[in-house]
Amino acid sequence: MSRYWSEVVRQLEPYVPGEQPQIDGLIKLNTNENPYPPSPRVHQLLNEQACARLRLYPDPNSLQLKKAIAGYYQVQPDQVFIGNGSDEVLALLFMAFFKQAKPILFPDITYSFYKVYCQLFQVNAQVIPLRDDFTIDFADYPSENGGIIFPNPNAPTAMGKSLAEIESLLQRNPDSVVVVDEAYIDFGGESAIALIDRYPNLLVVQTLSKSRALAGMRVGFAVGNSELINGLDRVKNSFNSYPLDRLAEVAAVAAFEDEDYFQESRQKVIATRERTREQLEAMGFVVLPSQANFLFVQPPGDAAELMAYLRANKILVRHFSAPRIQDFLRITIGTDAEMEQLISVLRAR
Ligand SMILES: Cc1ncc(COP(=O)(O)O)c(C=O)c1O
After folding, report:
1. What pTM, to 2 d.p., does this model score?
2. Which of 18, 147, 217, 309 is positioned for an S-S bond with 104, CB 3.0–4.6 A?
3. Residue ranges of the alpha helices (H) in the chain?
């Protein structure tokens, strides 16, 4: 604590990312990264020519990437906003849409960055408890609100909502911005991008960090009505005109161009997830249904102790000591070999 800190900085409880170990040889199942590399096309295009162009500033609007995403999702480029990771897109949208007199709504158990952004940007929030079975029930969300945000599927529970449920939430809340954070949508959910033309208050946020294996590049985007995108642009252009560097834009466009590779790697993750789920259930774990690239599991014994045991055996998983979920672990889906190693270490205990 320094006397030079502002009052806001004094009050902050910053987000704590999962461990990025500096030692080799660990099986990393703690931060929901993709176990497979990005498309080989990314590697081909990040070449000497791309590096030579680094002396120039990037396109402040990342237009090539907007066009690639717009083409992929059958929307217009002016319905797409690009940011430096979806965390940045989320931060900008909190500033653009959530500074209202009324509180915004999000689940009590969810992506912990939402709470941090509320502190940072001084946004009032009302957290809505998940049901006892860890599902989100939109009937619990009051219509008096300054905005709504939730991940679909939710994190860390991995459980998703149907498009029909999201649509009825939108119908009940025409006056506030509803943000669907689809970081994990490609592993089994149904994207709400299909609804943006009908709901001018819907903003869908996605990332290339998970299903497209580009966490190290930091690319995220939002899709919504062009007026919402305009609002985001106003904030972005008051903060950092060039959120995406040249290499990141090239890599992201390449990732969207290689559909075969994308489908193949996401299907592999889904198949491994289902196999791991069965194996864990057979060992007495409670496993929540997952539409994501991770499993949220309640082991038979103490979860924190099990995490420490796995760490001692060179396997990293994530434990949250928050109320209601301290008996659970979040396990990212790795390669088949990594998950086999996890299962054999668990069996050896
Ligand atoms: C629900 C959710 N949203 C957003 C993000 C941020 O992703 P990124 O900033 O890598 O795009 C994450 C990362 O783990 C997440 O779990």
Report:
1. 0.97
2. 147
3. 7-11, 40-45, 48-52, 63-73, 86-97, 113-121, 163-172, 226-236, 246-257, 259-282, 303-312, 336-347
